[in-house]
Each structure stands twice: as structure tokens, then as C-alpha cells.
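Thread: quick sanity check before group meeting

JM: Hey all, I'm pulling together slides for Thursday and realized we never actually wrote out the predicted structure for the chain we discussed last week. Dropping the sequence here so it's in one place. If anyone has concerns about the input, flag it before I start.
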Amino acid sequence: MANDFPPLPEQVRQAVLPNGLTVVGIEKPGFVRHYAQLTVFFGSASARRLTGANPGASLPAGVAHFLEHKMVDKGAPAAAAAVGGGGAGGNALTTRNVTNYYCSGLAHLQENVQDLLNFVLTPYFTAATVAKEQGIISQEIQMYRDDPDYEPQQTVWDHLFPASVIAEDVAGSRQSIAGITPELLTAAYQTFYRPNNMQLVVVGDFNFDTLLTQLTIPTAAASAGPIPRSAVATAPVITAPRLLRAPLSLPEAWVGVRLPALPDPTQRLRVSLQLDLLLSGLLLESAPDFLRLYQSGLIDDSFLVDAELHSNFGVLTVGGKTPAPATLAQSLKEILTPAHARAALTPAAFTRLQRELIGRNITGFDHFGWLGAQLVDAADTRAADRRVVYPLPKLAAIIASLRYTDVLALADELFQPAAMTTVLVSPDEEAAG
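JM (edit): ok, ran it. Output follows.
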């Protein structure tokens, strides 16, 4: 495809404040709704070492998620509403690599952004509230583990990243959170909740310069020293298939692929786009192999293709409910091979998928949550990388510049048996009866 796309009419403004906070603004004149997202580069797979008063001390699993819960609970009934004090709705989410606090509203953008900053940069931990939260999160953990889909998906992570914090449940375990104290939360907060380890994204009808001028950044205590870096998994993938029993209505089959860690955000963006094209040609809804599996009854609407690329890990998970788990798993492993990729992804199909990907990304510019996710993916735990402005105006040109041969080379790199694991799930006797 000719790389002749002019820059798109999207302007991304960026500034790094004196305290290190990266602020990214996407001005969208005429849009009524606005969106603000404050990302802390601290998740369940982040480094567990502390700095400051407890150098080298290790955090238990689930601290990032626990900290998110405690930030929402400020000890007063009206505190949770502070994220959207100007009439916005807010929420938070912890993943393996970040914790996101976000809000969206129809008015009072400046007030809502300020509330969001105040909310996250004002810690509040007491023994009573920590003990209460331990009970709440313990119930949440048990609820998830009672879900029949939990064990198969957790087993995929355990096999792809053995003996690594990457595989651990985002919420931790009931045992790990039992050891969390107010002092430990404070130490974790001071280590990771620093402005230079955060990124604020604002999307809507506003003036970026005015926003910066009127913001007041609360000053919170922070630990001295560098922010600990996340570890990269080194243990080999457990490739032997695993058979599980669970109270399911239908069996399931899952294939997981460990993808490489990509610390450079520019490279990660290109590989992410290449992987999108590759998977679209092999397993997404318009692909011939998807139609073949669907029409044969091997897959249904539960079929999932999910890929993540991060600075310290990457993963591809494919699977779902099926009447024949062994057959589906074998079919998926045959599809996820370099030879099949070369046969299925023809030059003509590649060009069509390239155009479709450009269209999807352009329409995504009007979906604020999607924009926020892209700006997190383009950042990294390294402060210098967050100074790289996400190339929204050039995104169509970047997709157009991707080459067919490079996508096939990516298949050669990723689709290797040593990077794959298989989990099969059959209904237990009680469910079968």
C-alpha cells in the first residue's frame, strides 16, 4: 500500500511538569463529553522492591490492586465521589502493568481533572480501613476463583510465565493480602505513586495551555531513589498440555503463546499493528479459518483472541467453549504456525486487512477510552519514554508503511512450539450429570 496518507486532523499536545508528571492532551473542539485518565505505572507484575525507608523490601502479591481499592476508600462516604465532583462518573482498574483512575463527564472538565489529581495524590491508610478492605478483597478473590473459567485461564498464565510474578493473579491471594498493613501500603505508595511515574491524559473540548496553567498538583511524600524496574520472565514455557476438570456446560480449549517483552514504545507500536494484521488474517471474524471453525461447530460466540504487548511481557490467548477440546486445540496450533500464516495471509488479503486496520484506528479517535488505552500502551515505566508523543496524526501512514514480509517474519518469530502451551477443560462428573 502506498504510504501517501496526509497527517490526520488530530492534535496531541504533551508537557512534562517540573515534578515529572507527563500530561497528554487531545483537543477535540465541539465534543460535549470529556475523558480524563491518570495512569500509575504500577501493576501486579511490576517490581516488588521498595525504596526509601525500606530499600530492598519485597511487596506481597496483590498490593497494586489493594492500593487501588484503598485510594477509592478515603474513609468518608462522600470521598469516592471526589473522582467526579464536577458531575463526572469515575472508576479505577488495576492490570498487570498499570493502575488506571479515570472519569468522564459532560461539563466541568477542569474541575474533574483537578478532582482526579487530588483523589490519587492524597493517600489515606488506617488499620481499620485496611482490615475492612482485606475482608472485601478476600471475598472478591474467592468469587473469581469460584468462576469455572478462572482456573483454565490462570493455568495458561502459570504455564507461560512459570515462577514469575507476571503469572500471579492481579488481586493476589487470600494469604498474600493478609500480610498487607498500612505501613506497607504507605511504603508502596511512596515508591510508585510519584508524579514522574504517572501519566495524565485528557480528551475533550478544552485548551491544553489553559488546562496546564490552572492545574494544582498536590505534593505527596515520595521515596528517594529510582523507581524499581519490572522483571522479565526467563523460565521456559511449560509446553506440556494440561487437562482440567471444571463444572462447565461445555468443554473448553485454550492455547497460549508467550510473546516477547518490548521495552521500546516505538517498536512496540509497530509490532502491535503487525500482530493485529496477522491475527486478523488468521483467527478474527473475517478470516477463512475462523469461518471454517465456526461453521464446523468447533467454536461459538465465546471464542476469544486476546493479545497484550508490554515492556516486560507479552501474551496471546486463543480459545473458548467447544464440543471437542482436543480437536480445537490441535486446529489452533496448526493455524498458529509460520507455514500456515504464509499460506493464509496472501498479499491481497494483507492489503485488505491493512486498509481495514486504518479505518478501525481512525474511527477509534472518537472513542475516548480507546484513545486512553493507546496512550498507555505507547508509554513505558521509563520516564524518558513517556516523553515520546503518541503519533496519532501519523497513525494511518504508519499502518500503510507496514510491509507484508515483515508480518510474515513476525509469524516466524512468534509462532514457535517452545513458546506455546495448551489447556483443555472438561466438565466434571457432577456437571456432566
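AS: nice. The chain is about 40% helix and 15% strand. The chain has a mean pLDDT of 87.
JM: adding both to the slides.
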